């Protein structure tokens, strides 16, 4: 594996972040700036945490920590989508 771009989790999290971003832009004007902004940030953070973890892959504990952060951001995104 040469890059984090080769990771399936990177590809899928990026695809979903783009999908969430696109869907969030269809919210009402009030929600677009409140809930929409938050869901866009948390969905993109999933991918960012995967990338940061990959960058620290030589340190197994750091890699696992960042994947745990990615899972937490994913859960946060789900909560915002539920609203």
Automatic annotation (TrEMBL):
Xref: InterPro entries: 23S_rRNA-intervening_sequence, 23S_rRNA_IVS_sf
Cross-referenced Gene3D superfamilies: 23S rRNA-intervening sequence
Name the record gives this protein: Four helix bundle protein
Naturally occurring in which organism (per UniProt): Chryseosolibacter indicus
């Amino acid at each position: 594996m040469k890059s984090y771009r080769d990771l399936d989790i990177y590809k899928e999290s990026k695809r979903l972040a783009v999908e969430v971003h696109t869907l969030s832009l269809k919210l009402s004007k009030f929600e677009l700036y409140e809930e929409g902004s938050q869901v866009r940030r948390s969905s993109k953070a999933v991918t960012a945490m995967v990338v940061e973890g990959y960058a620290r892959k030589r340190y197994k504990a750091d890699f696992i920590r960042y994947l745990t952060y990615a899972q937490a951001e994913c859960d946060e995104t789900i909560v915002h989508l539920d609203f």
